[in-house]
Amino acid sequence: xxxxxxxxxxxxxxxxxxxxxxxxxxxxxxxxxxxxxxxxxxxxxxxxxxxxxxxxxxxxxxxxxxxxxxxxxxxxxxxxxxxxxxxxxxxxxxxxxxxxxxxxxxxxxxxxxxxxxxxxxxxxxxxxxxxxxxxxxxxxxxxxxxxxxxxxxxxxxxxxxxxxxxxxxxxxxxxxxxxxxxxxxxxxxxxxxxxxxxxxxxxxxxxxxxxxxxxxxxxxxxxxxxxxxxxxxxxxxxxxxxxxxxxxxxxxxxxxxxxxxxxxxxxxxxxxxxxxxxx
Length: 279
Fold this sequence. Notes:
This protein is α/β, with parallel strands linked by helices.
């Protein structure tokens, strides 16, 4: 079954939890559905799996319903990718979230993405490696997505902000404060705020948002790996138009020691010289 998917039996029902949520399979189709999911390894074509389950016509109909429900996919959809299990799990989740009529073009869309990288060398290098493994292009020229990882030695906000505002890209920002990772804001081309607004809000600590300056401390290998993995997923989601709405315009801080987190919304600053976001 797709990675990240789990099944549990409750009487005659089978509950499946996966990238698209939790569903209960009931009735005559429950057992063949469970058998089909269990037998699907993500690499064997469904045409070879279906005959091993039972009546081919019945099982094929069950497979079609599972595909439509986002619980299963034809492995041919990911045949263009030669990746490890971590990257494959990421791709499976994104693929299954798409409407069925958009899945056939999934590989082409992913491999046509261009991501511009700015900031912390260690994190952006790992991000570049992940994106290259997926067939994406990394370039600051005409990007679909701009990723900025702040550090003391990184390109400053003003430079990145101007590059993003001059593009039609989605911006994904991150920063590492020792063991604390900050993701956001994520800003679309139509956002009414920018990184200059973030700087102003930090300086003013406006409206109790607690967007205060913090020292940028060197990140460990663990923090760099975590941050680059999250940014890979967000870059792909941004390029595919699958960003969760609740992430846009927000900052999320996660302490990797305690897993405590907090979040805040970035509002545009009236009269901002960069974006005029609050007008």
